[in-house]
């Protein structure tokens, strides 16, 4: 099967981990990601906490969330996106994976603190704080990538 455009593979993985691998023709890998996503989703009560969070019932979403399982989700999600993007021919520039790694890291940290972190008296919960944590992850990842490229160019 012909390789898909990297952006298309990335967007399908954002929609559902494993879809990017499937459109890239990596069926077994895609199926593994799909199974892991469903397993973690069910065990963490992810869909229910999304619904509660969107309805503003943050305390209920925190009470329902199974953080032991929810902690796996950011790394699975961002690894799936990176893998699909890379397999479709993306990320040929140096250190592109750093952006995905740091975003997974900051979203995981956001998940850890999501039951206690407040800003202006507002509790963010297991959905909103991790989503907001994407922004610093991308920024940190890009900054580190730029520093590594600059260092590499000076060494060469």
UniProtKB/TrEMBL annotation:
TM region positions: 31-55, 67-85, 97-121, 127-148
Name of the featured protein: Uncharacterized protein
Protein origin, superkingdom: Bacteria
Record keywords, A-Z: Membrane, Transmembrane, Transmembrane helix
UniProt keyword Transmembrane helix present: yes
């Amino acid at each position: 099967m012909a390789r898909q455009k990297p952006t298309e593979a990335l967007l399908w993985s954002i929609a559902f981990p494993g879809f990017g691998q499937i459109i890239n023709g990596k069926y077994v890998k895609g199926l593994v990601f799909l199974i892991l996503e469903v397993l973690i989703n069910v065990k963490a009560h992810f869909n229910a906490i999304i619904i509660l969070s969107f309805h503003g019932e943050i305390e209920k979403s925190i009470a329902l969330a199974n953080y032991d399982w929810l902690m796996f989700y950011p790394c699975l999600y961002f690894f799936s996106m990176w893998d699909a993007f890379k397999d479709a021919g993306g990320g040929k520039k140096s250190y592109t994976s750093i952006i995905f790694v740091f975003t997974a890291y900051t979203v995981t940290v956001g998940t850890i603190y999501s039951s206690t972190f407040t800003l202006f008296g507002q509790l963010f919960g297991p959905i909103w704080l991790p989503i907001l944590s994407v922004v610093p992850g991308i920024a940190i990842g890009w900054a580190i990538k730029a520093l590594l490229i600059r260092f590499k160019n000076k060494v060469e």
